[in-house]
Design a protein that fits this description.
- The complex is a heterodimer of chains A (377) and B (197).
- Chain A is α+β, with helices and mostly antiparallel strands and 377 residues long.
- Helices cover 46% and strands 15% of the residues of chain A.
- With 197 residues, chain B is mostly helical.
- Chain B contains 9 helices and 2 strands; from the N terminus they run ββααααααααα.
- Chain B has a two-stranded antiparallel sheet.
- Classes of the chains: A alpha+beta (377), B mainly alpha (197).
- At the A-B interface, α6, β6, β7, α8 and β9 of A face β1, α6 and α7 of B.
- The complex binds zinc ion (2 copies).
- The site of one zinc ion has 9 residues of chain B, from α5.
């Protein structure tokens, strides 16, 4: 299957539904595995990497869940195509930088993806919409167990799964949730939360993981340690913290509505105004303004059938996505900024104009988010 | 939260640092993290930044020499990249890694998933190790009756292991497989499932 056909559709994690998906955009679990007795990709010679790639790729392509899939060597993908996959969180930035001896395999719904010869021989991930780490882990765990039949993974009696970096040894598992937290950012509580989460061995990071800035008020919460706890214990601990952050975000929004409704409406209104009329906009500014529109949808200021339009804009306005339909060579930053502004204007015109000025009475159009709170506590 | 280095910009990079066996958190802004070479994998002693200050020295404690006998990866390579060369490096550099892993993680022993084909063997290895420890203790404390019982259990376990090897060899040749089904049944029934620690 061709990549263009796969990326023509938005991935399930963006277009699909899941528990608490207004605030928790997606849940992802990634497992790192290496083949027994083979040097790790960073130390292996090219011929060794190619042999490892062939062995793993064959096994992955034969998985029953990968019947409908896309599989390609990284040196056969263009820089733009790789960047599109990074923006969709299907491969890492590090993987996109790899050439010969590395490959990517993914299913059509983009819920499962496999990076072959990234930092480890195999990194496989499952990603779904909303907060459902248990389901997502079950998916990738099943895949891992199936692969065990054909691949011998490097495993140590005491240290568990062995990985190129000692920070991943043990379960080799990194579980994370992408959270949209404009309420906590506006009320300036987000740093306090990041601090306390970091203290308990979990990490909060920006949009594209380690070392990236938080854009569009999107934060990734993940486990930092992988040894000494079972996969279920790690996910349980992470889930608890995510629920707490979720509640804090819901509370922050309520308080903003009660105490600073004018400021809140002003921000959302201004964001809408700029996005409707801008003719040049950077990716960062677009994400930050779109974040307010997304919160506006949550608060019932925009009709809820606009949700997918807004969510898609978060991805469609990223640099590579902007250019993916064009048969031109790489655009300059200025051209991209104009193109981005035009795309946003067109999309927002399709949406019904919001009634900003009317403060939502109970703070939320969705009764579901209220019931979610009690369920989570 | 502000950057620990410049104390003026928002911290976006969070690192765990180990200083003299104690864990410390380092929070850096984008600019300072770049300056410190966190985003530059060729930077000197990346191990220190990725794995905590002192990680590079920690690995030097390893007495077995400074190269992995299997893949030839050296301590200097680890210091430079913060990555290991192959799975055997974990044994080659075990001494230095142990302290580092203990500080880096919540525990030093894996309690999670085990590949299905290694499960039985791993449980037996751990049981055997525990029995050996108890046996040594019993002998030291002159609890000879207990020591004898422990020795018998170790012998039984060893015998089971040998049977299993035989039945494994048999099962891999079609002709002999039906000749001794007993070995296989026995192999599957031991060891008794034990709770994971
Ligand atoms: Zn700084
Ligand atoms: Zn090695």
């Amino acid at each position: 299957m061709k990549l263009s056909r796969i990326i023509a559709n938005t991935g399930e994690w963006l277009s699909g539904a899941g528990p608490h998906d207004q605030i928790v955009v997606s849940s992802r679990v990634r497992l790192a595995r290496n083949l027994k007795g083979k040097p790790f990709p960073g130390w292996a010679k090219k011929a060794e990497r190619v042999a490892i790639l062939e062995e793993i790729r064959g096994s992955v392509e034969h998985l029953p869940e990968m019947e409908e899939s896309f599989s390609e060597k990284l040196d056969d993908l263009s820089a733009l195509e790789k960047q599109v996959l990074v923006e969709r969180h299907l491969i890492s930035r590090e993987h996109a930088a790899k050439g010969a001896g590395s490959a990517v395999v993914m299913n059509t719904s983009q819920t499962l993806s496999f990076m072959i010869n990234e930092e480890d021989h195999l990194r496989m991930q499952a990603i779904r919409a909303g907060l459902q780490l248990d389901n997502v882990y079950a998916m990738i765990n099943k895949t891992d167990s199936e692969l065990e039949d054909t691949l011998d993974f490097a495993f140590h009696d005491d240290l568990g799964y062995l990985t190129a970096c000692p920070t991943n040894v043990g379960t080799g598992m990194r579980a994370s949730a992408m959270m949209h937290l404009p309420g906590l950012v506006m009320s300036e509580h987000v740093n306090k939360i990041i601090n306390s989460v970091n203290k308990i061995g979990l990490a909060v990071r920006g949009l594209h993981g380690e070392g990236t800035e938080a854009m569009g008020n999107l934060f990734q919460v993940s486990n930092q340690t992988t040894l000494g706890e079972t996969e279920e214990e790690i996910i349980g601990r992470l889930n608890k913290v995510i629920f707490q952050i979720l509640e804090h975000e819901q509370n922050a929004r309520q308080i903003l509505l009660q105490q600073r409704a004018e400021t809140l409406l002003d921000q959302i209104g201004r964001a809408y105004g700029i996005l409707c009329h801008a003719h040049s906009i950077t990716s960062k500014e677009a994400l930050n303004l779109l974040s307010f529109i997304k919160m506006g949808v949550d608060l019932g200021l925009f009709p809820s059938n606009n949700r997918l339009h807004v969510d898609e804009l978060f991805i469609e306005t990223q640099p590579a996505h902007l250019q993916k339909g064009l048969q031109v060579t790489k655009l300059g930053a200025e051209e991209r900024d104009s193109l981005r502004a035009a795309l946003i204007r067109t999309k927002l015109k399709q949406m019904q104009e919001p009634e900003i000025g009317k403060i939502p009475t109970n703070g939320s159009s969705s009764t579901s988010s209220t019931s979610e709170t009690s369920e989570g506590s | 939260m502000f950057c620990d280095v410049c104390k003026s910009k928002e911290a976006t990079v969070f690192l765990t640092q180990i200083v003299e066996g104690k864990m410390q958190k380092v929070n850096l802004c984008e600019g300072c993290s770049k300056e410190k070479g966190v985003n530059d994998p060729t930077g000197f002693a990346l191990a220190d930044l990725l794995l905590g200050l002192g990680a590079a020295q920690e690995i030097e404690k390893n007495p077995a020499g400074n190269r992995c006998p299997v893949c030839g990866f050296s301590q200097a390579d680890f210091k430079k990249t913060g990555r290991l060369g192959c799975s055997a490096c974990y044994d080659a550099f075990a001494e230095g890694l142990f302290g580092m892993l203990k500080n880096m993680h919540r525990g030093s022993v894996h309690t999670g998933k085990v590949p299905a084909k290694l499960r039985v063997g791993r449980l037996r290895n751990r049981e055997m190790a525990e029995l050996q420890t108890s046996l040594q203790k019993a002998i030291q404390e002159e609890q000879f009756e207990e020591a004898a019982a422990l020795r018998d259990r170790i012998r039984k376990l060893e015998e089971e292991f040998r049977n299993e090897m035989v039945s494994f060899e048999e099962s891999s040749t079609e002709v002999n497989r039906l000749a001794s089904p007993q070995g296989t049944a026995e192999a599957l029934s031991v060891p008794k499932p034990r709770k994971q620690p």
